[in-house]
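User:
Care to share a sequence and structure tokens?

Assistant:
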Amino acid sequence: MEPINILVVEDDKDINNLICNTLKKTGYKVDAAFDGEEALQKFKESNYHMVILDLMLPKIDGIEIMRRIRGESIVPIIILSAKDEEIDKILGLRMGADDYMTKPFSAAELLARVDSIIRRSFYFNELKPLEEDKIICGEVTLDLNSYEAAKKGENLSLTRKEFEILKLFCKNPNRVFTKEQIFKAAWDEEYMGDENTVMVHIRRLRAKIEENPSSPKIIVTVWGIGYKLGEIKND
């Protein structure tokens, strides 16, 4: 099997070395970058299975790096930040992060999160047999092999979790899902009652797929219960 390759983008050399050494000890292949320009250059030159990204970086900040990566890839991204305000976490998730860790953090917790995301990534992309290659959901098409989504032929640039949420609805068009059920399907983790995480991802997904996100037609709210696929027609 191809070695799992992770890009660690962190300008603090001690923290960068700690992360890299922790990951290497468990068998991951790791590249380090210490500023935004170096990170983008390495991302263009290699295929990575994950990016661990600090937000406060020299030359190009982490938010801009994430924006550029999300323009071409759904590779999992874990944000590292000294900012622990809720608004910062929401911004990071809206911009396309798959997870968010605040400093200081333990190397053991970071490794556990990396393992969990990589495990799900390989399960959905390589190990799980697919019953079909594509799902047609009204004007939206989901490619289950490449994990790409398009609407009217235009790429939607969905994150992995956004893709998983949309796939859940499209494969179950008549079912209403609670926030807990959505979380378990997209995160493959025990639900801890954090409704805001699901709501942020639903809002971000709607912004990408709806003609009018404030009046959604594809993913609709079922008040008091959760969400479901709207009334759509497949040509």
Observations:
- The chain has two domains: 5-127, 134-229.
- Confidence is low (pLDDT under 50) at residues 126-131.
- The chain has eight helices and twelve strands.
